[in-house]
Specification:
It is an enzyme of class 2 (transferase). The chain is α/β, with parallel strands linked by helices and 574 residues long. The chain is built from 19 helices and 18 strands. The longest helix has 25 residues. The chain binds 2-acetamido-2-deoxy-beta-D-glucopyranose (4 copies).
């Protein structure tokens, strides 16, 4: 019997690092659409997993039922803990390997109880798959999130306060007494970038007591659950300025940078009812004044701020004196901003969550260790390239993330229960995955470990706005975040999202120059924070250029982009 499953190709997409276009790299246009299909003898494998799985579940439920209830102390100390079962190990050692431990479904108080679980399964189930947050979020952050939720409930779409402010926006007049001010996030750029900018914009909303409203764009509703209780975060379709979103740019009349250029801010006595903030990688010196306290003082008075950005601009907020104390209180650990805000805000919809869970349970759950390898090649050719493969292997072998193979000696030394590693690779191209998979099929490992290589999709090129494509891309980022160790590519927002959600400090593959594998091939990241690719280099007080990567110990230049900025914790310096 020969049954084959054809796997549709999906690319590692949504990862348009638009900032790169700025660098005259002109890459994406040349990437040709390829229509590879790969066939895999999957049926048998899946059958095996299914049977093992069912067996495991049955035995497992028994073991849970028969087990002692968790101690009262645990339950009393934290009434929100639910006891869930953690299945770390595989099917071989059921009774002893299935560790029962309390899962904190509210992840350190970041989430609140009371949402309808079925409407968004990932919200409370993700704790079963991710490692817990480490370190824990500060109690101040938790209390600020609760305060934000109350504000959102008061001011969100179609509340009385919202209706009033929208009416004022229509009329162009507004009363100073309105309790609600807004920041509208305009859906813009690839999925990886959008995830990073949502987190930065939410942080800006927290810092300025604004309500975050999200332009649903083409596919946001299909990708993300509602993060706030009761009142939606999506901007209603009848929002008055909606038809203008697409056209907003640096030349727009309402663009704040443009107004500063024209001196129309200083001359006007009344602040406008809304402003457009252009924080896209191609922004200019006046647009960048957004990151100066003086301008923030003016922006405070404007009820509606509309932001278009493709960058994780958080690091520059940490350089502004007016936000310094608040940020210190919210985030005693500087490198956990995206980790906490991402886990708080970004819950995959049930469709996406199904993709995550089914893949995880089928290929990754039973391994002793999970290794994520995220490959993004910035080249005009689609590849695959030998130098990239060489670099991946050089990095993973040198850093002991994967075992070497024995090419001379074909004798299999059977070990009783070999340790297993599951490697999840993501790439637009299937070539690297096939080569690595074949290597571990054709030769035994020197350690006797069993290495399985998996790649969910390979769509050949990026398709930023295709729905199922972005659902799969989001699922892949999430799956990577469930790794125990992670290898990422330089400059890729896809990798930043995975490392941040997973709380992982990845090994970063240096960007190859001149189609040559760099030596050393990779380095460990200083922190799990994403890199801000287009930061301003300006000293607001002195009104002159300055290296903003040298001002404070916790804002440094990135490992993968010498002019980028990222947050690090002080004690992580080598
Ligand atoms: C199962 O695990 C226990 C403790 O971890 C170990 O003592 C035992 O040998 C294992 N059994 C098998 C069949 O691997
Ligand atoms: C706000 O306006 C919408 C229609 O635009 C209406 O359906 C809703 O009831 C209003 N909300 C309140 C609290 O009046
Ligand atoms: C900018 O300045 C020019 C010349 O002073 C003026 O004609 C124009 O209306 C101004 N634009 C805005 C948006 O204020
Ligand atoms: C890149 O490679 C070409 C040909 O191999 C060589 O002539 C050139 O000097 C190299 N450039 C750099 C920056 O190494």
């Amino acid at each position: 019997m020969k049954r084959l499953i054809t796997i549709r190709n999906v690319e590692e997409g949504g990862d348009t690092d638009d900032a790169l276009k700025n660098l005259n790299l002109n890459l994406s246009s040349d990437l040709e659409k390829k229509n590879n299909t790969t066939t895999l003898p999957l049926m048998r494998l899946m059958g095996f997993f299914l049977v093992s799985f069912m067996l495991f579940s049955v035995l497992f439920s028994l073991s849970v039922v028969l087990r002692d209830p968790p101690s009262d102390a645990v339950l009393e100390a934290s009434p929100t803990l639910t006891t869930t079962v953690f299945q770390q190990q595989g099917v071989n050692n059921i009774s002893s390997d299935s560790v029962e431990k309390p899962i904190d479904k509210l992840i350190g108080g970041l989430l609140i109880d009371g949402f309808d679980e079925r409407s968004c399964l990932s919200r409370y189930q993700s704790a079963n798959y991710h490692k817990g947050l480490s370190p824990k979020p500060s109690s101040y952050l938790v209390s600020r999130l609760r305060k934000y939720e109350a504000l959102h409930k008061q001011c969100g779409p179609y509340t009385e306060a919202y209706n009033k402010t929208v009416k004022e926006l229509r009329s162009g007049q507004f009363s100073k007494s309105s309790p609600c001010k807004y920041v509208v996030w305009i859906s813009f750029s690839g999925l990886g970038n959008r995830i990073l900018t949502l987190a930065s914009t939410f942080l800006y909303a927290l810092l300025t007591d604004r309500v975050l409203l999200v332009d649903p764009g083409v596919d946001m509703v299909d990708l993300f659950c509602e993060p706030f209780p009761e009142v939606s975060w999506f901007l209603p379709p009848d929002f008055p300025l909606k038809s203008q979103f697409h056209g907003f740019n640096q030349k727009s009349e309402q663009c704040y940078g443009k107004m500063l250029k024209n001196n129309s801010v200083a001359s006007s006595t009344l602040p406008p009812s809304f402003l457009y903030l252009h924080l896209v990688h191609d922004y200019d010196d006046e647009d960048k004044l957004f990151f100066c306290d003086e301008q923030q003082n003016f922006l405070k008075k404007v009820p509606w701020l509309l932001i278009k950005t493709d960058n994780y601009f958080t690091p520059s907020l940490f350089l502004m004196p007016s936000f310094e104390q608040e940020l210190k209180d919210l985030f005693p650990n500087k490198e956990t901003i995206f980790h906490f805000l991402g886990r708080y805000l970004l819950h995959p919809t049930n469709n996406v969550w199904g993709l995550v869970v089914r893949y995880y349970e089928s290929y990754l759950a039973n391994a002793n260790e999970r290794v994520g390898i995220q490959i993004r090649v910035f080249d005009t050719d689609p590849g695959p390239f030998q130098h990239v493969l060489d670099q991946i292997l050089a990095c993973t072998l040198k850093e002991n993330l994967l075992p070497d193979v024995n090419r001379e000696d074909d004798i299999v030394s059977p070990s009783e229960t070999p340790k297993s590693k599951a490697v999840l690779m993501t790439s637009l191209n299937a070539g690297y995955f096939e080569k690595v998979r074949d290597m571990y099929w054709e030769y035994p490992t020197v350690t006797g470990e069993v290495v399985g290589i998996y790649q969910p999709s390979h769509e050949g090129h990026q398709q930023s706005e295709k729905q199922i494509h972005n659902q799969k891309a989001w699922a892949e980022m999430y799956l990577l975040s469930l790794s125990d160790v992670l290898v990422t590519s330089s400059w890729s927002t896809f990798g930043y999202v995975a490392q941040g959600l997973g709380g992982l400090k990845p090994w970063i593959l240096y960007k190859p120059e001149n189609r040559t594998a760099p030596n050393p091939p990779c380095r460990r990241a200083m922190s799990m924070e994403p890199c801000f690719h287009a930061p301003p280099f300006y000293d607001c007080r002195a009104k002159r250029g300055i290296d903003t990567g040298e001002l404070v110990p916790h804002v440094r230049h990135c490992e993968d982009m010498s002019w980028g900025l990222k947050l690090v914790d002080r004690d992580n310096f080598d």
